[in-house]
Amino acid sequence: MPARHSSVPELIPQLSRGKHRNPRKGACFMELASFLAGERWSDHPACTHPLLAGLARLVNDHTSDAGRSDLSPLVPSVIGLVGDDPRIDVQVALGAARTALPVVAAERQRVMAVSVLAAERALAELEGAVPDRLSPGSHEALDRVPAAAEWARRFTEDIGATSRGFRRHAAANTVRYAVTGVAAACIPDPDAALRDMLAAAIADAEGLLGRSPERAQEIDHEEWAAACRLTGVGV
Known about the structure:
Number of domains: 2
Radius of gyration: 18 Å
């Protein structure tokens, strides 16, 4: 990739919902990432971990038209975030579930609480840690919904889930349920919550892959300007 610069230009490419045949038809979050990475135009580019890319697509599509332009500055951060560390799938799902758990409707909280506990167990298995450990972020999220947390603990008590099973079956469903739940939640600014969910997932992936946030924010101004010309300019 060409030399990159650290500041984000003032112009913001216009993002839109869904998949697009080419940039003149519009661009979603991951399609813009494919363009900036120099890949073939696609919403499934090779430059980003599949589950992180899936989260980005969901956040893009469930953010309002008015709020979607706030996602554009995050696009360069997902480029190059790819690797085979199995913890990435688990951590992305865990972060999404923790963000969603305290704010989603009551009928969704049990599912999210189960997801938090299952992800923590999967992560503990991968890291060779104590199976029933809970990270501070998970403790905090579960403490905010004590009834759902207690139900989830009883529900998962005798379930022998594995990290492989969680990654293959539960991780993507957790991310999808978390995003749709936050988008429908009765909170002051669901767009901001979704953006924070994606930003946190990017930061988690950076930590696991050993990439500094400073490097993640670097972009090429000429590529960025080209993206603006192709897709239009957001407000």
